[in-house]
Amino acid sequence: VEEIPTNYSAAKIIQMGQSAYEAGDSDTAIMCYETVIERFGTDIQIFLEANYEIGHVYLNQHKYQDAYNAYTEILNIYNSTFAGDLPGAYKKLAVDVSDAACPRTFAVIF
User: Is the entire prediction scored with pTM above 0.85?
Assistant: First the structure.
């Protein structure tokens, strides 16, 4: 992907990132998710989804510190909001994935 058209929706760019990841192109996937954050990151739900996807890519690349940073950012957002203000799915996923996939890395804060 040379450049992502500015008229693409967050959902379309996230789908592009997922397709790139499934095709083995992690760099393009990360670029897509970072583009979503740059363009639509003020919508907290979109930010959470894109950041979760970034963490997922890093985790599967065994870049545990980068994955930890992405998941920690998600959990910090949840911890600084009132219960019920955000959908619980990304918090649960961040905790579940980190606990199951790399407990030594994440056990310190989760």
Answer: no
